[in-house]
Amino acid sequence: MSDTKLELAGGQDQVGAAKEYYFARLGTLMVTRPKPESAAVVAAAIVQKLSEDSRIPGTIDVEDIDDFWSSWRGMFPANSSGANTVLTGEDGFASVEFSAPIVFTLRVAVQHQQSHHGTDQPPTDTYAVAWDGLTLLVVWKQKSRHLPLSGGHIAAKVITDAITAAGFGSYTQACSPGCDYVFLHTAMEVSADAASEKAEIEPAAGASNNRVRFTIGYDARGELEEMALFGLLSLRTSSGHFAEVKNVGRRILDIRNQIRADLSHLLAHNYAYASGRALSPVKRMKAARANRGWRKEGRQLMARLWLAMSNVDSLTERWLDSLRSLQDSRYDIGEMFLFGYDMRSDISEIEAIDLQRVVDAMNQVASTFDSRVLAVSTSLGALGGAVAGSVITVASQ
Questions:
Q1: Is-contact 178 335, C-beta < 8 A?
Q2: How far apart are CA 130 and CA 335, in angstroms?
Q3: What's the whole-model pTM score?
Q4: What is the DSSP string of 257-291?
Q5: Which parts of the chain fold into alpha helices (H)?
Q6: Is the distance from CB of 165 to CB of 50 less than 8 angstroms?
Q7: Which residues, in sequence order, are CB contacts of 13 under 8 Å at separation 6+?
Q8: For each of the chain's 397 residues, which pLDDT tens digit applies?
Q9: Torsion of CA 25, 28, 32, 37, to 10 degrees
Q10: Separation of CA 392 from chain center
């Protein structure tokens, strides 16, 4: 048995073989269900559909997937259909993380792979895929260090099609609602080294900021499936925290957007009322008729705003817990080099949330209502400052 070691960006092994470069992309691809159920049954149904795909040679093993070690998480989609859905969480779904990854080789001719928005063509016709129901890792090798945006996307499509054929739903979590890129924007140059005590992630020398070096603490000897398997096993804990941070953070921002819309609506009513009060008696009566019923709608808007802020408070606690867990992992193998680019905008936006301004505006509007509403509004005013303070304190660490 040779002492071959796969080397990053040099790619030449110790016996003088031609240079080959190994790359990987990581993404969040979820199976969605209305509620948790048997993970083993879900996995078996999806694998059955994958096994029927002629582009996947060989057999796929699911014997290691069991219900006891699998887990389910409550997740949310981005761009929900309406304000009430965002606030009640009715659009939430259960997402499974299998106890063991599903691993297979995928072969698709380059001309049959769609390029990403017309960019340069995919780099290969062969990919190794590891997916645990939540995190997707795609590994391949090529003869150039140039990394096209289109590499690996076909794997996400194949799995999504299998999920749909098995009768389940799927959700691909991008960096933001307007992005259709299915992977992290930071790609990995991969090497495998049995001498390494553990996996390690660090910035890739001589490459762009959106590329890291990922060394797997295992001598895969060029076997792509083994690289995909051990790569995902090294990353799945932190990638699970990352998926939750992104998902819950997005829901917090969706609620923030709804708060802004409702507050603008409320203030518009208040402005119309105040403007009418400044008119002559005759015009004031006409303005009052035009704005009739605004207090009733205003109270409904205020009730929804309080519910929204309460939801931000509870979701922030969950978000902070996942963020702390993910940040702790940076002392392990350096995952923050991989996840940081796709997280930083969310963290800065959540850090900037200031609900105290919302509370102040609501108190101002409530002053035009009866004293009882004003008293309730004032007593709840501490919520906004407490939520904003907790986010800023932890997210800036």
A1: no
A2: 18
A3: 0.84
A4: HHHHHHHHHHHHHHHHHHHHHTS-HHHHHHHHHHT
A5: 39-51, 83-88, 153-165, 224-277, 281-290, 294-328, 336-351, 355-366, 371-379, 382-395
A6: no
A7: 4, 5, 6, 7
A8: 333 334 444 344 444 456 889 999 999 999 999 999 999 999 999 999 999 999 999 889 888 899 999 999 999 998 666 778 888 888 999 999 999 999 999 999 999 998 887 777 899 999 999 999 999 999 999 998 888 888 999 999 999 999 999 999 999 999 888 888 999 999 999 988 777 767 889 988 766 668 999 998 776 566 899 999 999 999 999 999 999 999 999 999 999 999 999 999 888 877 777 776 666 776 667 766 666 667 778 888 888 899 999 999 999 999 999 999 888 865 578 888 899 889 989 999 999 998 988 888 888 887 776 544 444 444 444 444 444 444 434 433 4
A9: 90
A10: 21
Token pair 């993970």 is found at 39
Strand partners, 94: 33, 74
CB atoms under 10 Å from CB of 281, counted, come to 6
- The closest alpha carbon to 249, from 330, 318, 174, 337, belongs to 318
Residue 41, both tokens = 């049954």
Q: Where are the domains of the chain?
A: 21-235, 245-395
Give the phi and the psi of residue 13 in degrees, each rounded to 5. -80, 180
What tokens were used for 7? 């080397």
Residue showing tokens 């998926």: 243
Please give the backbone phi and psi of residue 208, each rounded to the nearest 5 degrees, phi first: -70, 170
Cβ burial, residue 52 (10 Å; 0-12/13-18/19+): exposed
Per the DSSP assignment, residues forming a β-bridge with 131 are 102, 136
DSSP 176-210: STT----S-SSEEEEEE-TTSSS-EEEEPTTS-TT
- Report the largest interatomic distance among the alpha carbons of the chain, rounded to a whole angstrom: 98
Query: Token digits for 74?
Result: 């409550």
| Surface-to-core class of residue 144, CB atoms within 10 Å of its CB (0-12 exposed, 13-18 middle, 19+ buried) | exposed
Q: Amino acid identity of 269? A: H
Confirm if 213 and 201 have CB atoms less than 8 A apart. yes
The alpha carbon of residue 115 and the mean position of all alpha carbons in its chain are separated, in whole angstroms, by 23
Residue 11, phi-psi category: left (phi > 0), alpha (psi -120 to 50), beta (remainder): left
